[in-house]
UniProtKB/TrEMBL annotation:
This is Alanine--tRNA ligase. GO terms for biological process: alanyl-tRNA aminoacylation. Catalyzes the attachment of alanine to tRNA(Ala) in a two-step reaction: alanine is first activated by ATP to form Ala-AMP and then transferred to the acceptor end of tRNA(Ala). Also edits incorrectly charged Ser-tRNA(Ala) and Gly-tRNA(Ala) via its editing domain. It is found in: Cytoplasm. InterPro entries: aa-tRNA-synth_II/BPL/LPL, Ala-tRNA-lgiase_IIc, Ala-tRNA-ligase_IIc_anticod-bd, Ala-tRNA-synth_IIc_core, Ala-tRNA-synth_IIc_N, Ala-tRNA_ligase, Ala_tRNA_ligase_euk/bac, DHHA1_dom. It comes from Spirosoma validum. The keyword Metal-binding applies.
Length: 889
């Protein structure tokens, strides 16, 4: 059975059991502050378990792209060394939201594995939760009773809380699980040792393939458990491991999920994959694994960067590059060459990669080029460090950390190179430095949340009324306090709200909540921001004394947003849509949105494009947007459009966005701009008034950013610029053409500058002639003697002083000169000596000038025949010259 067939059979099987098959959510988790990447199939359904929304069906199944490289699940360091943990993998899952429970889940799992996939029954083991006295949770008798007739008691394993009790987080839904393990060893090995003894023992051929979670409890903040009113099933099966079991392989990498990519790596490196434990085999596994994680993450909208999720992707990519570099001798970009094979392989399962394959390949290539350069620099620095060790044999941990932290030069690579040179690294010291940094960054991110105080039931979802009205009466559903860097804040949830919660780049609304109880108003709270947590809209208000009483006493709330701020936001958001289409028109259809910021002050739009947007292109885009503004196109807003219909309308669908089955479509002229969007917009483009760019730049490889202002913001911008021009005009005495006037001023300035230089030159020449008259002949000890000139002069610059000394030397043979000048309040000295004094008398202009400079509180130096000095006390010039006369006498 090929991997394609295996995946299809899974979905068909659960379709036949009345499950709705849904698409995978993107790898990057959206609207969930606790999660960076989707790391399990259930992540996209969290809300349904928490009761914050209604699922599209009570039974759902899918294959979900998962990434386990951060947070609670981090398998990164195992990947490549073992044969069954990946960074990115597919998790096949089936769910019951308050519908079927353990019986069906267990029976169907068994039926699928043994009837459809024909896995041998005697090679399967299952685990059930053994109970935990400390936590007051009982043994899962129900699951045990269901499994016993199927697998027999001797193939049931009792699992502890760590392996067999699942919790969503510190609080929330939880329950026992039942895992299914498979033994893939040879009959000889099985005869030697029963598989049961190897379950959960990290044996590469006795692995867990499926985990069935039965959610039946809710954990409260005080740690206690209460039964959930609606019980759920959440299962997750590792697709690659399942393929290994069905295709009877010893490793996930031997299945057809990976063999295509491994073939290409073999071709590129000229080495053969031996499926062993040698480092070149590890490297091939690392590369075959990481290229998936990186490619799919980029296709889902991430780009490698220096922060957050982008940084995680960068690290994964770099890990692969470095294994290739160190163990396969791949010193030119190679990861980028694996993209096409992968894109083809998944074209029908996850089409987002194939659709953006050139973009993905280019981003990876640029990243590779720059990291390979870093590797080069790091290697150079390391050579230097090793040279400086002077016989010591251990590279200090601090140094290893610094290489890692500032050059991105990984510790194990340092260790490897050190080993090659007969050295080692201080591993403990490195770990300590790393740990210290982790503690530092954890401190920065710390925040904690209290329990929700529930006030009224929420029937369904929070209703958003803000598309149509800026104000609304509402009920408080619940609130809680959170501690974060800003101190204590209170999060309030209403049953309906006009407040737009930050999402899709548009920032959250601010405004007020007026609280009413009985017949009167009891207080007003200021909403500082509005955010989304999964499907909940959270109003963030300042904490104040008595706020608990206010919130619990209030029977209703009048929620009102800041409307002028919202109007600016709407203008910026609609302008972003017009901008998107204009960019595609001017730059080409490769332009895809990569991120945006829509605030009251400005808008920012990031998009894929590989070169700088020229001034001419920007001007053209701006012209088109403003033309669309003036056309005053009415907003066409369609809510609850089925996704297929939206695509037919030509909506610019964004890969990496998680859409429900029904979407909102925003159109400004069906032939110009059609987008899927949840944001708030102007009713007619004319409301945007004016659109002005304020900046263009690069965000990361292949992604550009433009910034702009609209409406009042644009007006202010234009007014400021015009004010500058008008001030200039005033200064220039109202010329007809300001630019010409400024140009004329600059021309005039340079002419004058030249004239001044000419005059100064002339003056220096005159001075020189005068000085020639003052040259004295010094007849020392009856010898042939030398000439001497010691004078205070009036010159405009130190350069002129130097020039003067040289000119004099050229005119008079065997001349010794000391010149002093006060140049704009600063004393300056120049000393020039003839050979006769340098050789004959062993004098040195540098030393002479240093000696003389003491008189002017300064210092200087130069060559033996010419030196200069500056000082801070002009009153000492005469003394300096007198001393000079003495010395050269
Ligand atoms: P393991 O103990 O093997 O790491 P787990 O307990 O972390 O597995 P679950 O969180 O229960 O796994 O995930 C459900 C299924 O997903 C597992 O049964 C397994 O088949 C698969 N799985 C988990 N982690 C990975 C991974 N890193 N790579 C590939 N498949 C995985
Ligand atoms: Mg795990």
């Amino acid at each position: 059975m090929t991997s394609h067939e295996i995946r299809r059979h899974f979905l068909d099987f659960f379709r036949s059991k009345e499950h709705l098959i849904v698409a995978s959510a993107p790898l990057v988790a959206k609207n969930d502050p606790t999660l960076m990447f989707n790391n399990s199939g259930m992540a996209q359904f969290k809300d349904f378990f928490l009761g914050n929304g209604t699922p599209p069906s009570k039974r759902v199944a899918d294959t979900q792209k998962c990434l386990r490289v951060s947070g609670k699940h981090n398998d990164l360091e195992d990947v490549g060394f073992d044969t069954y943990h990946h960074t990115m993998f597919e998790m096949l899952g089936n769910w019951s939201f308050g519908d079927y429970f353990k019986k069906e889940a267990i029976h169907w799992a068994w039926e699928l594995l043994t009837d459809v996939y024909k896995l041998p029954k005697d090679r399967l083991y299952v685990s059930v939760f053994q109970g935990d006295d400390k936590d007051n949770v009982p043994f899962d008798q129900e699951a045990f009773d269901l499994w016993k007739p199927i697998v027999g008691e001797d193939r049931i394993i009792y699992g502890n809380k760590k392996d067999n009790f699942w919790e969503m987080g510190d609080t929330g839904p939880c329950g026992p699980c039942s895992e299914i393990h498979v033994d893939l060893r040879s009959p000889e090995e099985v005869a030697e040792k029963p598989g049961k003894e190897l379950v959960n023992a990290d044996h590469p051929q006795v692995v867990e393939i499926w985990n069935l979670v039965f959610m039946q409890f809710n954990r409260k903040a005080d740690g206690s458990l209460e039964p959930l009113p609606a019980r759920h099933v959440d299962t997750g099966m590792g697709f690659e491991r399942l393929c290994m079991a069905i295709q009877q392989k010893k490793s996930n990498y031997d299945t057809d999920v990976f063999s295509g990519t491994i073939n290409v790596i073999e071709e590129l490196s000229g080495k053969k994959y031996e499926a062993g434990t040698g480092m070149s085999d590890v490297a091939m596994r690392v590369i075959a694994d990481h290229i998936r994680a990186v490619s799919f993450a980029i296709a889902d909208g991430l780009v490698p960067s220096n922060a957050k999720a982008g940084y995680v992707i960068r690290r994964i990519l770099r890990r692969a590059i470095r294994y290739g570099y160190s163990y396969l001798n791949l010193t030119e970009p190679f990861m980028t060459k694996l993209v096409p094979t992968l894109a083809m392989q998944f074209a029908d399962v996850f089409p987002e990669l194939n659709a953006q394959r050139d973009f993905v390949a280019t981003v990876i290539r640029e990243e590779e080029i720059s990291f390979l350069r870093t590797l080069g620099t790091g290697l150079g620095r390391l050579d230097q460090i090793i040279g400086d060790l002077k016989g010591k044999e251990v590279i200090p941990g601090e140094t290893v950390f610094e290489l890692n932290d500032t050059f991105g030069f990984p510790a194990d690579l340092t260790a490897l190179i050190a080993r090659e040179k007969g050295l080692s690294i201080d591993e403990t010291g490195f770990q300590t430095a790393l740990q210290e940094q982790k503690v530092r960054s954890r401190k920065d991110a710390q925040s904690s949340a209290g329990d929700w105080i529930e006030l009224t039931e929420l029937d369904n979802k929070v209703e958003f009324v803000g598309y149509d009205q800026p104000e609304s009466y509402a009920q408080i559903v619940k609130y809680r306090k959170i501690q974060n860097k800003q101190g204590t804040q209170v999060q309030v949830v209403l049953d309906k709200t006009p407040f737009y919660a930050e999402s899709g780049g548009q920032i959250g609304d601010t405004g007020t909540l007026r609280l009413f109880a009985g017949s009167g108003e009891i207080g007003t709270l200021t909403v500082l921001d509005t955010k989304k947590e999964n499907d909940l809209t959270i109003h963030i208000v300042e904490n104040s004394t008595g706020i608990d009483e206010l919130l619990t006493e209030a029977d209703s709330v009048y929620a009102a947003i800041n409307t002028s701020r919202r109007a600016q936001i709407a203008s910026n958001h609609s302008a972003t849509h017009l901008l998107h289409s204009a960019l595609r028109e001017v730059l080409g259809n490769h332009v895809a949105q990569k991120g945006s910021y829509v605030g009251p002050d400005a808008l920012r739009f990031d998009f894929s494009h590989f070169s700088k947007v020229t001034d001419e292109q920007l001007a053209e885009v701006e012209r088109i947007v403003n033309e669309k503004v003036r056309e005053d196109i009415p907003l066409d807003e369609k809510r609850n459009v089925p996704i297929d219909q939206a695509k037919q309308l030509g909506a610019t669908a964004l890969f990496g966005e998680k859409y429900g089955d029904f979407v909102r479509v925003i159109t400004f002229d069906p032939s110009y701009s059609v987008e899927l969007c949840g944001g708030t917009h102007v009713y007619r483009t004319g409301h945007i008034g004016l659109f002005k760019f304020t900046g263009e730049g690069s965000v990361s490889t292949g992604v550009r950013r433009v910034e702009a202002k609209t409406a009042l913001g644009a007006e202010t911008l234009v007014n400021e610029q015009m004010a500058v021009v008008s001030e200039l005009k005033d200064l220039l005495k109202a010329p007809k053409d300001v630019v010409k006037a400024v140009q004329a001023l600059m021309d005039e300035r340079s002419t004058l500058q030249k004239q001044i230089e000419g005059l100064q030159n002339e003056k220096v020449q005159q001075l020189k002639n005068q000085l020639l008259d003052k040259v004295e002949l010094v007849n020392r000890n009856g010898g042939s003697g030398h000439s001497r000139l010691v004078e205070k002069v009036d010159v405009p610059s130190a350069d002129a002083l130097k020039q003067l000394a040289y000119d004099l030397k050229a005119k008079v043979d065997n001349l010794a000169v000391v010149l002093g000048a006060d140049i704009n309040g600063k004393p300056q000295l120049a000393v020039m000596l003839p050979d006769s004094l340098i050789q004959g008398k062993n004098l040195n202009a540098g030393q002479v000038v240093k000696e003389l400079a003491k008189n002017i509180k300064g210092g200087g130096g130069g060559q033996p025949f010419f030196a200069t000095a500056g000082g801070s006390d002009s009153s000492g010039l005469d003394a300096a010259l007198a001393q000079g006369k003495e010395l050269l006498g």
